[in-house]
Specification:
The complex is a heterodimer of chains A (306) and B (405).
Chain A (H helix, E strand, L loop, with lengths): L1 H31 L6 H18 L4 H29 L4 H20 L29 E4 L2 E4 H23 L1 H11 L1 H6 L4 H27 L6 H17 L4 H22 L6 H12 L14
Antiparallel strand pairs in A: 1-2
Chain B lengths: L1 H34 L5 E8 L9 H17 L7 E8 L4 H14 L4 E3 L4 H13 L4 E3 L18 E3 L4 H15 L6 E7 L3 H14 L7 E8 L7 H8 L5 E4 L5 H11 L5 E4 L6 H7 L7 E4 L8 H14 L5 H20 L6 H13 L2 E4 L2 E5 L5 E2 L2 E6 L5 E7 L3
Helix pairs in contact in B: 2-11, 3-4, 5-6, 7-8, 8-9, 11-12
The chains are: A mainly alpha (306), B alpha/beta (405).
Amino acid sequence: MRNTIQQLLNGIFIGSIYALFGLGYTLVFGLLDVLNLAHSEVFMLGAVVTYSLVALHHVPFLLAVPLGIVAGGLLGLVIEFVALRPLRRRGAPPIAALISTIGLALILVALIEQAKRGSALAWLWRDGANDVQFPAGKVPDRIWHLAGLTLPVDKLAIVVITVALMAVLAYVMAKTPAGRAVRAVAENPRAAQLLGVNVDRVITITLVVSSALAALAGILFALALNDISPYIGRDQVELRGLAVIVLGGMGSIPGTFIGGFTLGLLESVTILTLGTDVRAVGFVALFVMLILRPSGLLGRQTSERV
Amino acid sequence: MRTTSRIRWWGTAGIAVAVISVAACGSSSKTSSSNSNKGKTLKLGAVFSLTGAGGVYGPQQQQAVKLAEETTNASGGVDGANLSIQVVDDASNQTQAAQQTQTLIQQNQVTALLGPTLSNSAVAAHPIADNLKTPMLAVSTTGLNIVGTCPYPCTYIFRDSLGEATAIPTNIKTYVASANPKPKTGVLLYPNDDKFSVDGATAVKQTVTDPAVGIQLLDTIQFSKSDADLTQFVNQGVSKHPDVIFITSLGGIPAKIMTAARQQGFTGQFLGGNGFNSAAVSKQAANFGKGAQSASAWYLGNDFASNAEFVKAFKAKYGTDPDQFAAQAYTGVLILVDAAKRAKLTYTDLPGDRQKLRTAMESTNIQTPLGPFQFTSTHDVHQTIWVIAMDGQGGFTLVTSVKPS
């Protein structure tokens, strides 16, 4: 019984990271109909910048976290101005934007994996392709043991932060002028522009917020799983992040939230019931979802207009 | 009596003259041969994973072969010939490893190669080198069927990296022999999408059934190397209350498992393979990994001359201690240079030189940072095995050494 509860808790912990990562994905997709595949590299860089500040420059963790988030937001600007806006101006199809974000992602990974002692980027990262972790004693690492259960405080904090951010984002999107502007652009950019909405500004701000969320997810991932490397975004969350937004409904914030926790819990329940030999059950569920309800759990059913 | 004494005197004098003559001959031939290749170049290639998943190991290998190249050239080269090693990146990708190997052999005309870094890549690159009759020395691939029983002739393939099939049984048996109380149960954790890890797991499964070991595997837990959170898998293992957790994996995975297991209250022993033998892994595991034991091809603290000099030179050049991957890559260059000196290469007949080098490599018997080194008849490692344990502070302590059988 204790093992069952522990595994369900593990599912909730990892599900909250999937949800937080997926929120940024879904924001951009909901607005532009474009998958920003550099999102996983912003996730990685959020962790790398925060690690660098704490481990190499001795900045207190609680100050390094907002700086890491700001770095993520700035990278969102880079994605918009380098990979997306030039293509949008030329009326390029969404696939072109997808490819350009893949290109940017590859460049970002290559920059970090080549950063070593003595290199130009050694101030940011000096461990090449190695896995590193935050130095002990400089980050919160307390673990509570309750009724035989292991409860790492950082993982509990991630769940709280994810739920809070989801609530704030849902409120902003539904009730504020900024949210209305985003929804207007998502619905019809031309009509929104005619109504006085600065479309480029809305897109830029959305990318900054989305990237800041990715950076925060990366920082929390690195903290909770004790793992920072150039590949944490690409190898460990990118595919699952995509699964989460498809499962929850592309473009739906509550859907992404539910999708994240569903995937995390599904993985845990699979281990509990079917053992560790059965793999990729989450992706089987995704496949089933795509067949039965292509719009996802909370996505809107759309019909092609001709 | 006098006759006997005279015979003995002449005998002794004769032997002395013979020894001096042989020594003089040897010395002159050495002198002449040490400069005989002046103006020529021995071209070697190295296929390493400088980026991608194997990028954790490739850069140290590159540093080590460049150091070996410098040291060799500074001490007269290969009997006067300049040593030139071209290092290429296979990006931890099987296809690229194969392409780079073919390019180095056919386009760059190297006499022999080192690498690739990963067993996954070796299964694609080695058959190409073998087919093109070019010696290729694996310096970090420890999986099964790399040498010996390969699915192709592999007559030109050698290995100086201690295979998991040797390292893991040695480690487990050494631990069981000294443990008190004897471990009775174990759980095995490994990623099932990586050849190195799967081969290591096979070695564990075979070893625990040995009557001399007698450990019952309570569970075999497989996961993917891309799984974000291993806590769930570790949880399953710890919940079985094993005496030992076996981990066969590379990179950050062993450290993640050790950390999660200790946090969940596991107090038993961690046993593993070559994946443990990296300062990065020991550093990442920190106190959670203290005592984690593995059998290694190399130990930093060995103070015999061939290792001490290597460690000193590496530290002086790069400002950091070498690791096992660097030591094996450095040893790889020493083996090829030694064989090239004995093979009397022509430097004009490349296929003939490759053949001569291969033959000379088979009779390797030199001092290296790994200790005295020879190849077995199947071109595998014949060396002392160093059983080491993580010290909880990013380093290792020597538990014992096991002579080759």
